[in-house]
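Q: Start with the shorter request: fold the first protein.
A: Done. Sequence, then structure:
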Amino acid sequence: MQEFQKFTVEYDGIKYVSEFDTKSVKRGEELGVFENRNKPIECTFLIFYASVMKNHPTASMNKVREFYNKIIEDPEYGVTAFENIIDEFFTLYNLLFTGKGEQKKF
């Protein structure tokens, strides 16, 4: 079984645990990650939202978007705050669905 890395994203007193499994990677695909690759802000949000749903299934898309927007609008963080989560999504997508990539030990 593939192991998946968890990321805790905390900002302004709110905390979300971002984690991927097969279901969350598929959810990202269904949400339109690949259709939005030319829109990096939206693509990043969709990846983040898909990963958050594993541990926070009742979190609304609007609430998670509000949290996400606060982080990317903060000059100290910006959209690069989500680089590890984006990398994890694409690495695991390739492992799970294309057979490309090497299995990492986390």
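Q: Next, the second protein, separately.
A: Sequence, then structure:
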Amino acid sequence: MTVSTPKVAVDRVDVRVDHATLRIVEVGRGTGYAVRLLGPIDEGWSLRFRNLKTHARIFSRFGLDASTGTVSFSRETTDTPADVIEALQALDTLVARANGVSRS
């Protein structure tokens, strides 16, 4: 007779971008955007985020402040709403990749 062990589901909460918190902020020598992240941002996740952003130019514009759970990025004077949406989509991808890497 074989005894099976019941599988226990482990709830894992991923970090995600809260698009509703997008705002214009001072960044360096100009203005930019900032958006909050939701979910557990620990030292390991922060390190994975930073490592991933250095490997793809599209992610290089994002700066993480883990202490506030905020990501900021530069703003161009010629940015259209479509450009901002594209940046947020790139950030979503970066965050998803950091979450995916953290699973392994």
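Q: Describe the second briefly.
A: Residues 16-103 form one domain. Residues 81-103 form the longest helix (23 residues).
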